[in-house]
Amino acid sequence: MTTAQTTELDVQPTPLALLLLGREADPRSERGVECPGDLPSPSDPDLVERARAAKEKLGDKVFVLGHHYQRDEVIQFADVTGDSFKLARDAAARPEAEYIVFCGVHFMAESADILTSDDQKVVLPDLAAGCSMADMATAEQVAECWDVLTEAGVAEQVVPVSYMNSSADIKAFTGKHGGLICTSSNAKRALEWAFEQGEKVLFLPDQHLGRNTAVRDMGLSLDDCVLYNPHKPNGGLTAEQLRDAKMILWRGHCSVHGRFSLESVEDVRARIPGVNVLVHPECKHEVVAAADYVGSTEYIIKALEAAPAGSKWAIGTELNLVRRLANRFAPEGKEIVFLDKTVCFCSTMNRIDLPHLVWTLESLAEGKLVNRIEVDKETEAFAKLALERMLALP
Ligand code: SF4
């Protein structure tokens, strides 16, 4: 657990635009939801002090969670930092906190609501902070996919495994159909469990984590995997392909990790002789195959903590985290660079900025509950089932 550094209040707001990927707006993940209140101006010099004062006023009633990919200006106010599952569990372990402010994205706040008590209210500072990967698998699309599998005569052999980075609806679908949730740390154990229950796995929504785990960790071949495209009739697959496949991968991906390429790996090796390439398993298979090490954000942090002085690292994950790690380990003589030459922030994670955090904390301190994320009871029950199966993994 990384505790907050609320005494170090000299971090400046990140001077960057939100849509850093150089692409057009993504109407599905960036839903354009307006904040219902008056946001403080980003140039207000008192923002840090205002956030600190509001948080102090709320005391133990509020618990602020900061995902690893959040900006420094937000992370400085986090009571804990971590990946989405760890944060949801940390919130559940703080029943005295009535308000859980989740500095992350929408599906993470849903997971926190599922795992915390009914008395705890989960708040997302900006409702437009979605996740393009989670949005690539909707409840309707997944229900249609199940019909296709049923039609092909394979549904009974299929166990769904859904990545944590999915909506509460998809988690509930998974629980209802005998499957479980996985994180990037336990995907191998989740697949082992699933293959003990059935002959095939439907992996949602990240094709890359599914493929990388199946091929790197489970000894399956690329030919054992097929790609289900929800935008094509029958997923673009024949009944025969579905019958022959062991892994049915949903055609979803992370727009941030998907940007790393084989060229990025070759380029950094040429630029920095002796560099260790360490990437997240949400990267494409060819990137993972060319890397020296592969692992979750927690794995990346631990690997860098254990790295010897003088070692050189190129990291393939979200830039806010890489930059923070580079600064943290520079005094120990560890050279850490971002794997790609271009910036690679998660644009939706970056929506949570200091003005939104100040607005949220001040509203709560005034007794106004804003931007609550609440999962309905039925969805919650099935989603919890899928999460509990994950928690019961050996
Ligand atoms: S980094 Fe990728 S998976 Fe994570 S929130 Fe952003 S788009 Fe979603």
Features:
binds iron/sulfur cluster, 394 residues, Rossmann fold, 15 helices, five-stranded parallel β-sheet, 3 domains, globular, disordered N terminus
- Helices and strands, in order, run as EHEHEHEHEHEHEHEHEHEHEHEHEHEHH
* Oligomer classification: single chain
Unreliable spans are 1-30
Q: What is the strand tally? A: 14
CATH classification, class level of the largest domain = Alpha Beta
* Helix share, percent: 25-40%
Task: Supply Rg.
Answer: 21 Å
Number of helices: 15
Q: Determine the mean pLDDT.
A: 91
CATH H-level superfamily of the largest domain: NadA-like
Q: What molecules are bound to this protein?
A: iron/sulfur cluster
The CATH topology assignment of the largest domain is Rossmann fold
Structural class: alpha/beta
Strand order of the largest sheet: 1-3-2-4-5
The fraction of residues assigned to DSSP E strands is 5-15%
- The total number of structural domains is 3
Q: Report the sheet with the most strands, covering strand number, pairing sense and barrel closure.
A: 5 strands, mixed
From the spread of the alpha carbons, the general shape counts as globular
Distance between the termini: 22 Å
